[in-house]
Amino acid sequence: MKRTIETTCVIAGAGPGGLMLGFLLARAGVDVVVVEKHADFLRDFRGDTIHPSTLEVISQLGLIEQFLQLPHTRAPKLTAEMGGRTITMADFSRLPVQNRFIAFMPQWDFLNFLAEQAGRYPNFRLIMRAKVTEVLEEAGRVSGITVATPDGDVRIHSRLVVGADGRHSVVREKARLTIENFGTPSEVVWMKLSKQPGDPTDVMGHAGPRQGFVLIDRGDYWQCGFVIRRTTFAQIKARGIDAFRQMVVDVSPLPAERMQEIRSFDDTSLLTVRIDRLKQWWRPGLLCIGDAAHAMSPIGGVGVNLAIQDAVAAANILSAPLREGRLSDSHLAAVEKRRSFPTRATQKLQLMMRSSRRSDEADDEKRKGPPAFIRGIARFPLLAHVAGRLIGLGFRMERVATERRR
User: What is the average per-residue pLDDT within 370-389?
Assistant: First the structure.
C-alpha cells in the first residue's frame, strides 16, 4: 500500500526556484513539501551565477551577510575579447542595489543554504531521492503527485502542485502542458581546467572570434564552456579527444598544454541549449516556474535568477490564498501574467543575440569578427551599463512582500 502525505503545496524540484519558493511559502505560514529526485546537490556545471537581483532578494530576507560568507568569487563586470583587446560587456557599478556584482558560487552551496534556512520552519519538509512518476488529478484538477523513493511509492496530496523540475520537467510532461520552442538548439561543452600564475585575471570572460569560449573563475580552477558551432558534439567525439583539444586550444586564452588535463570525453559535460516556453504555465491545481515554464540560453547566466524571481512573485501572490484555503485559478493566472513579460523579453533578447551570431556564420569572412551585439557595445561603452541592468536586474525585479510567520 502506498504511503500518503497531505500538504498544502508540493513542489517538484529542489533547484533554486523550487527551494526559494518552498522557503518563502514556509516563512509565510504555508505547509509545504519539496521533493528532489537526487540524493544531494553535488553536481558539476549547474547554473551558479547569483545576480544582483537574487542578492537583493537575499538581502530583503535579512540573510545577505551570512550568505556572502559562503565561498564565492565576484564579478563587478563581465568582459569579452575583441580584436585582441578586452571590452566590458556588462557593467553593474550603477545598479540601484546594495550588491553590484555577480557572485559565482557552486550551486550546491546555494541550494544547501536555502534548504538550511527553509528547514528552520516546522511547516517545511524536503524529501530527497523522490522522483516524480505521476501527476494526480481529481475532477479535472491536479490534486498531487506520486513519487518513487527507496522506501516505495508515496502519494502526496496537495492544494497546489508546483513544477520547478527544470527544462526536462516531468511535471509539465505528465500534466500535458504545451511547449513552444524557439530558435535552433545549440550545445555547450563544460570542463574544468587548473588555474595557474599568468592566467587571465577576469572573473568571467569570453574569448575567440570564431567559437565562443567562457572562463569562470572558481578560485583554484577554471570552469570553461566551449560553445559548439556548425557541428555537433557527437561529430566532435567521433574525431577523437586530440581533435577536440585542438578546437579548444584555437579559441582559449589558456596555454595549449593546459588542455592535456582533459584526458577523455569523460572529463566533459554536455549541455544542450534550448529556448522554450509553455503556452500556459498553469492548470487548475498546478503551476510551473523557472526552467519548467521557460528554458533559457546560458547567455548572461540569467536562468537561475529568473527562476528566483518567479519564486518570489509566486510566493507574493499565492501565500495568503494557500494559507487561507481560497486558492483559485485566477491566482495562478496572476503569477503567469506577472512573470510573462520579463520571460518573453529576456528570451527575445537571447534569440536576437543568437541570431546575430548565426547570420555571421553564414559568411566565413564575417565569422572572423565577433557578434554584432559585441561590436555595438565596443563602439558605445555606455551600452555596457544598459547590458548590466538587463543582466543584473532583468526586465522586472521582484521584491519579497510576504510577511514572516512562525
Answer: 76
Cell numbers given for 314:
509566486
Q: Is the pTM of this model over 0.85?
A: yes
Please return the burial class of 5, using the count of CB atoms within 10 Å of its CB with bins 0-12, 13-18 and 19+.
middle
Residue 208 has pLDDT above 60, yes or no: no
Q: How far apart are the first and last CA of the chain?
A: 34
Sheet containing strand 124-127, edge to edge, reads 124-127, 32-35, 9-12, 160-163, 286-288, 282-283
294 Cβ contact partners less than 8 Å away, ≥ 6 residues apart: 276, 277, 278, 306, 343, 347
What Rg, from alpha-carbon coordinates, does the chain have? Answer: 22
What are the two backbone dihedrals, phi and then psi, of residue 136, each rounded to the nearest 5 degrees? -85, 145
Determine the 3-state secondary structure of 192 from DSSP: strand
Does residue 359 surpass a pLDDT of 50?
Answer: no
Instruction: With beta carbons less than 8 A apart as the criterion, state whether 268 and 274 touch.
Output: no
3-state SS, one letter per residue, for 248-285:
HHHHCCCCHHHHHHCCCHHHEEEEEEEEEEECCCEECC
Extract the C-alpha cell encoding 38: 537526487
pLDDT band at 1 (very low <50, low <70, confident <90, very high): low
For 228, the enclosing helix (H) or strand (E) is strand 221-228
- Mean per-residue pLDDT for 344-367? 62
Residue type (1 letter), 395: F
pLDDT, tens digit (0-9, with 9 covering 90-100), for 51-90: 999 999 999 999 999 999 999 989 898 877 666 677 788 8
Query: Is the per-residue pLDDT at 361 higher than 50?
Result: no
| Closest alpha carbon to 371 in 381, 358, 382, 384 | 358
Q: What is the mean pLDDT of the chain?
A: 88
The CA distance from 406 to 404, in Å, is 7
The predicted pLDDT at position 210 comes to 40
Q: DSSP string of 363-381?
A: SHHHHTS--HHHHHHHH-T
Closest CA to 41 of 103, 102, 116: 116
CB 363 within 8 Å of CB 72: no
Q: What is the DSSP letter of 227?
A: E
Question: Which residues of 13-62 form beta strands (DSSP E)?
Answer: 32-35, 49-50
